[in-house]
Amino acid sequence: MDGGGALMDLFAETWQYLLDADSWTGGGGLVARLLEQLLLTATALAAAMLLGLPLALWLGHLGRGGFLAVNISNVGRAIPTFALLALLVAADWPGSSDFGPYGRAGLATLIALVLFALPPLITNGYVAMREVSTDVKEAADGMGMSRLQRFRRVELPLALPVVASGVRLALVQVWATATIAALVAGPGLGRIITEGFARNDYAQGMAGAVVVALVALVLEVAAAALQRAVDPMPSGPSPDRDDGLSVDSTSVAVAPTGS
Amino acid sequence: MTILGAADSGPSCYSRFVNEWFCWQYVEDRQGQITDALVEHVLITLSALALGIAIAIPLALLARRVPRLESAVLGFSTGVYTVPSLALLPLLVPFTGLSAATVVIGLGLYALTILVRALLDGLRSVPDDVREAARGLGYGRARMLTRIEMPLALPVAMAGLRVAAVSTIALTTVGTLVSYGGLGDLISHGVQRDFRAELMTAAVLCVVLAVVLDVLLVLLQRVLTPWTAGAR
Predict the structure, then answer these.
(1) Family, per the entry (chain A) (predicted)?
(2) Rounded CA gap, A105 and A87, in Å?
(3) Is B77–A244 a contact, with Cβ atoms under 8 angstroms apart?
(4) Which is deepest, A6, A75, B178, B206, by most CB within 10 Å?
(5) Which of A86, A183, A206 is facing B91, going by the closest CB pair?
(6) In a 10 Å sphere around its CB, with 0-12 CB exposed, 13-18 middle and 19+ buried, how is residue A22 labelled?
């Protein structure tokens, strides 16, 4: 793959592949794989939020379990997604069998996705609650709010932007992990890439990569817009809050966790 | 960890029929293969980190001077970080082919995005008082940077380096797409052949490698910034 001519040829072939209607339709086509991966991503993110957010918010509210909540992201980062997926697929349970609309090795993939979505959700959820200033909490107590009222009407709205940035991190993580699932013959768009490489059809591999990357960027932009939308103080006292990925790099995960 | 030495006559613990997850016999028999994969893994990781650091430092210093460049750099790093590794590697293949360079450049890009952010955060964390005091003592721009700002930015920058190092170790496994994944190649082979001992050994080694590198970086930070010892 050297020389400018070969390079241009590959780009031309990739473009051809993307323009060809046959690449999009059919059982293993781009549309089917895209839907498969979007379904996986949505299910896993929803499950992780249901599991992780209540726990993280409650721990943050109580101010307990901080060591665990902050370090779980570091642990998650050290475990390669590929290795965990491979272990789940090779195990007798959940194995690599079909799982409804999620396709081959769908259950193993879902479990891995949920596990890798949890660390950013838990860490950000916890930090978000802890960062609500003590003055504000005391003021709420002084106004005679009960613990539950304080949690729902004061702490939660103020914590929401940082929680949302955790959801955004988790979304990126889940999308990346869902792509890697293809390396262990799992479902999703990554299959287009791995099948292309396995057959030395690099145009197909490139085309799959382009679609995966574009959808990832679209999801990220949408999540960023959502994050801005839930901020109760868009031009509030911390202007650097929305400078990208997360609260601040010293306390919270701002990195691709092994994906 | 169970170490199941095979009986003299029975099948070894990694034979097709037994297929144990943990099997010391496998590690002994395939020592050479495992060492090769481990060395490749470490070399790819260190090269990617070196590449990331080499580009991140001048880029961060430049971005600090030019505010417009800073937002461009931060936007670019968010973009790169968003692209999954399995999609980033194929996009590099037309330029670098199926080589270790593809993996090193891809992972270097991810490391770069983390490091630039950390460096900018670190430089921003230097108190203005300190800068003014240095200026009052007659420090010029270059001396201020090397003697005052860089050392004070080091703790935050090192935290970023630790994050970059640990995630690069994990990400190197994905390099198996172009057959340069270090331990990832063993994982890939293990999952294709349903070879559990190979799979588990490689996975455990990845995590061990990440922990070892992280500990080394913590020690390095202690040596470089002795004044933070009590504060952390």
Answers:
(1) Belongs to the binding-protein-dependent transport system permease family.
(2) 12
(3) yes
(4) B206
(5) A206
(6) exposed
B31-65 helix and B100-124 helix, angle to the nearest 10 degrees: 40
Q: Class of the A39-183+217-242 domain?
A: mainly alpha
Q: Give backbone dihedrals phi and psi of B181, rounded to 5 degrees, phi first.
A: -115, 10
Which runs of consecutive H residues, i.e. helices, occur in chain B? 24-29, 31-65, 67-82, 85-96, 100-124, 128-136, 141-143, 150-172, 183-192, 196-224
Task: State which amino acid sits at residue B76.
Answer: F
Of B87, B177, B202, the CB nearest to A197: B177
Question: What's the length of chain B?
Answer: 232
Chain B within 8 Å of A38 (Cβ-Cβ)?
no
Give the integer Cα–Cα distance in Å for A181 and A81. 9
Q: Say if CB A121 and CB A56 are below 8 A apart.
A: yes
Query: B160-186, pLDDT tens digit by residue?
Result: 999 999 999 999 999 999 999 999 999
**Which residues, 6 or more positions from A9, have their beta carbon under 8 angstroms from its beta carbon?**
none
Domain edges within chain B: 52-118+159-226
- How is chain A split into domains, by residue range? 39-183+217-242
Mean pLDDT, chain B, rounded, equals 91
Query: A88-128, pLDDT tens digit by residue?
Result: 999 988 888 888 889 889 999 999 999 999 999 999 999 99
Helix/strand/coil (H/E/C) assignment for every residue in B173-224: HHHHHHCCCCHHHHHHHHHHCCCHHHHHHHHHHHHHHHHHHHHHHHHHHHHH
- ipTM of the complex model: 0.89
